[in-house]
Amino acid sequence: MYYIEKTLEVSACHSLNLSYESKCQNLHGHNWIITVYCKSKELNRDGMVVDFTHIKQLVQGRLDHANFNEVLPFNPTAENIARWITEQIPQCYKCMVQESEGNKAIYEED
Known about the structure:
The protein is α+β, with helices and mostly antiparallel strands. Helices cover 25% and strands 37% of the residues. The protein has helices at 52-63, 68-71, 78-88, and strands spanning 2-14, 28-40, 92-100, 103-108. It has a four-stranded antiparallel beta sheet with strand order 1-2-3-4. The longest helix has 12 residues, at 52-63. It is elongated, with a radius of gyration of 15 Å.
């Protein structure tokens, strides 16, 4: 099995739709650190699991300097964003989304 890992930084804002009162319901921003984990039993015809540039285009290209509430079709929690990123890249099996120093969410396929 081949494994790759790509880490990106995305500057973006969001507001959360929550069932309780929270300051996170207000529009606010983060410098998100996103780590994408991919794997494959075989390399593609170019000798890669997936091109790092393609991961960058799919993630940073769509999310950097965006309002997540406007570009994502769900409540943009770190957990939901991690799942969404995993679903965008066929070889991706896990994604970690860090919205601040001590706050990380990880989604991993079964």
